[in-house]
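Q: Got a minute? One more chain.
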Amino acid sequence: MKRNVLHLIAVLFVVHGALIFYGCGRESAKSLTIAMSLGEEEWKVMRQDIFPPFQQKYDVIINAYQVESGQLATKLEALERSGKSEIDLFAQDNMNLAMLINKDLVLDLSAYRSLLSSQIMPNLIKACEFKEKLMFLPFRPNVQIVYYNADAFEANGLTPPQAWKELLSIGRYFKNKEGTGKILIKGFGGNATATQVYEFILQAGGDPYFFNDEGCVKAFEFLQRLKPYLSEDSKRAKWDTTNMILANRGAYIAQNWPFGVSVLIKKYKLDFIKTYSGWKGPAGERHVIGGDVFGLPKNSKNKKLALKFISYMQSKEAQEIMVSKLGWPSIREDAYARVEEWQRPHFESVKQALRNGVFRKQVEWWPAYEKYINTAFREIVFNKAPVKETLDKYKAKLEKEKRYIGD
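A: Always. Here it is, folded:
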């Protein structure tokens, strides 16, 4: 009887200890809450390959969840007003930084500049500076490349278009042969459409923010001429749906970010998909350099742990995983050793696009620009509205909204 009682006590002691350790969020472990905007495949790699080594090394639980880039500022502002510090660290699209700065929502990281490796590309660090203060830290650069259906091109004796004129000609050829357009343009709206239009304007020699200069007019006139040869799926095309449209042969050529290489070629084994850097406009080949940077909310409660996580994510080991498994370009010059043979031509496409890359000037009124450039795109390209008059109309609206914002 005594032995049974002692055994029961021992069991209860073990159970009690386990409840303390695992119950209610594992009280003995630290936690780090991270907000990111990723696709399904990207989240999978983060949770299976990237997060675990850091969690094990620092005995930390990473709570990571999706916050769309356009919603981050609103989320952080609401948390600050309510006195909450729910987010310790965030990754944000580098096209949406000005609002975070102007609303004073992020921590100045200038004191931590020494944490940056000499292997990180200097221009990526420069893009994180505002008024000579280091407000963000590099995470990953990004640039769009062109994906095309090599089988369809080769079967028709065609080569991928290197200039606008060739893109138009190839679009006309496939439309005449197959009765439907095979060029895909991201026409869904939001950042996807605004970024693609921005690139066309740069290629035309225009200033996208001027909205209605000669280059802007040239870009929209070209897109309007291209419209009859666009895939019917263009109206729903954005960064994620583009992959499926290409996989299903709804289009034979489209621009998208490099993560599509891992999805289309590695996951779905679609060897007929090839890539190259892109086409030239009248002013040459130009690409917007996008990607994400890390930042800390001013009220982050785990600053030291967050900075350790950033250093880990910038390490050669972590960057190599993201390069090899996600097909992301790296912030480091030394992170391509693990690239497999099949990936090499696609990384050459990326490197070439980066050589012609342009960082977008940070403005607080990007959401307003995005709204009006998208509206102009829909009216001009999809609804055949007159180009100059439509651009003039929405430039006036943009200028009025900029004055309200305080530009």
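A: The chain has two domains: 2-141+291-341, 143-289+360-405.
Q: Perfect, thanks.
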